[in-house]
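Quick one - first record:
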Amino acid sequence: MKTAIDDLAILPATKEAWTLLYQDEFLLVVNKPAHLLTVPGRHPQNQDCLISRVQQEFPNAAVVHRLDYDTSGLLVLPLTKKALSTISKEFQSRGTKKLYQAVVSGVPYPPVGTVDKAIAADPDNRPLYKISSDGKASVTHYKVLKELPEHQASLVQLEPVTGRSHQLRLHMQSIGHAILGDPFYAKPAQHQQSSRLMLHAAELEFTHPQSGELMHFKAEADFLKALC
């Protein structure tokens, strides 16, 4: 008999290790590789994830924000209940700043702009989302950093104002510039241009929950070495 588990995707976890960029008694900042869930998935075979790996070394580490399985980049992981509460409130109030690097098909015009399109779950195509006037308000700022004519693509900086699932990839696809390597929203040829989604959380800024200091971290995407 078919069960609900049968409808869930199995997402093989990469063997690539996560890296520790910062550590104190209150929090960690880590760089997550692509093809790794941030937290355990619903399928029993999707238990290997970033937080389970980190907790082998730091048992008190907790998740306050996430990156998609396909996306690499920076995450802050609180180590105390107070840090978790304080940083959670900062994320909820949009006091943090997150900048992403992405390689998209073509060259967006104008080179600096904003995508303001509501997003909703697509019940007919789970786990995909769709642009819908009935969805949740979603805003992304973008800026072209470099044209890549040999790849018929460009490197862009993406800044999400809101934090909807699949927001960046869906917003870029909606203006005709899908992120390369995207298995969900890119055309087959664009998907096949990369073995991974070319989306990376490259910069993260937040206020330290104990000292009040403004913390800023950068980690360049690995895929840029082969493109730029």
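second record:
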Amino acid sequence: MTYIIGFCIGAILGLTGAGGSVVALPLLVGLLALPVQTAAGMSLGAVAMAAIIGLMARLRSGEIVWLPGLYFALIAIAALPLGSYLNHRLPETLLLGLFALLVITVAVRLWRQATDQPEATAVVRAGGGSAEVKPPICRFTHGKPGPRCFLQLGLAAILAGVLSGVFGVGGGFVIVPVLIFLTGISVHQAVATSILVISLVAGSGFVLFVVSGGSTDLNLLLPIAVGGIVGMLAGTGLARYLAGPTLQKLFAVVMVLLAIGVLIQTLVKG
């Protein structure tokens, strides 16, 4: 079961460039009955390993935009402790309720994009399609980096970092649209840069989880990580064949069903 969970996480991350971490928490809580705090830490570890493999596959593509990516990652990492603090202070039922709300919000965005901009869903993937490499700009300072652009990127990075610490998500569903909107880079560049940020943020989050005394069962984490790596490679390879509006809508529905299922299970236990 752990290999299958890891494969699902990696495959979704490979197919979409984001989103694998969103399903990690419901799968770990619902199928393995892990506490939310432990599941969040395990999720970060598995997502980080899968993202690192994805990052290595993109290093030669020239699509990674390093300056905004590293800036975003550093700010998000700095915000991780706040998310971790909230993770350990908030009741489990409240955490899952907030997570369900987060997942539904992301799912609605994905569904609306697939409906209103079906052409975009064909390229917002880890693979497939031709890459269009464009230099980063800032939409709000006449095309040049400026304080307003860095401030807005920083605020989005803080949100991604807090979400990572609380829920064990990499934040790709925040990173990709923010990079596209604020910097004007291509979708392929945003996805590749998102993988860079996810690997750094999720990896740092997992280290913070371990240092703070989180439960790290290697017999559980390693199979999930191995499954995630295989899933990432498979998802990246299949992206050009499976990407599209229908797949994105299906993914949105699965996200909502997973989150609601785990929430109901927790409420029944309570």
